[in-house]
Amino acid sequence: MSKLTLGTHPFLLGFDQLERMVERTAKADNGYPPYNIEQVSDHAFRITLAVAGFAEEDLSITLEDKQLVVRGKQVEEPSDRVFLHRGIAARQFQRTFLLADGVEVAGASMEHGLLHVDLSRAVPESVVQTIKINNN
Predict the structure, then answer these.
(1) FRET pair for 22, CA 20 to 30 Å: which of 31, 41, 78, 131?
(2) How do the residues of the chain divide into helix, strand and coil, expressed in percent and rounded to 5?
(3) Which residues in the chain are classed under CATH 2.60.40.790?
(4) Distance from C-alpha of 67 to C-alpha of 116, rounded to nearest angstrom
């Protein structure tokens, strides 16, 4: 007996790409920077990334083929600084979030070293369609 996966289940037609997208997204997670995802209302979400040490001009947010991509890259620091301990990460990062159909970026803001990206989901219209049966 073969194992049915999400993309090959007979009741889920057209979802074959969903399983590949989930696998690709899971592999891309390296844990940096840490983030929260919260549900603000029934149709709104907020992603918050801890980006301490990054200025607004060091960050970019793009939407690429249903993927929200947040990138951070700091400019080189002066080499005359001597650290006795360096615990604040200053490395570049790329964090990707896959957005469902109908989810849009409502805006972004930065506050106290936290980058907030607000998302909203349009309420789908309930559609009932009657299909006519043709006689051959």
Answers:
(1) 41
(2) 15, 35, 50
(3) 32-77+86-121
(4) 16
Between vectors from CA 46 to CA 66 and to CA 20, what angle results, nearest 5°? 35
**What is residue 1's three-state secondary structure?**
coil
Length of the chain: 136
Two tokens, residue 85: 């301990």
64 has pLDDT over 70: yes
- DSSP symbols for 67-83: EEEEEE-PPPPPTT---
Q: Is the pLDDT at 1 greater than 60, yes or no?
A: no
Q: What is the pLDDT of residue 32?
A: 87
The class of domain 32-77+86-121 in CATH terms is mainly beta
Q: pTM of the prediction?
A: 0.72
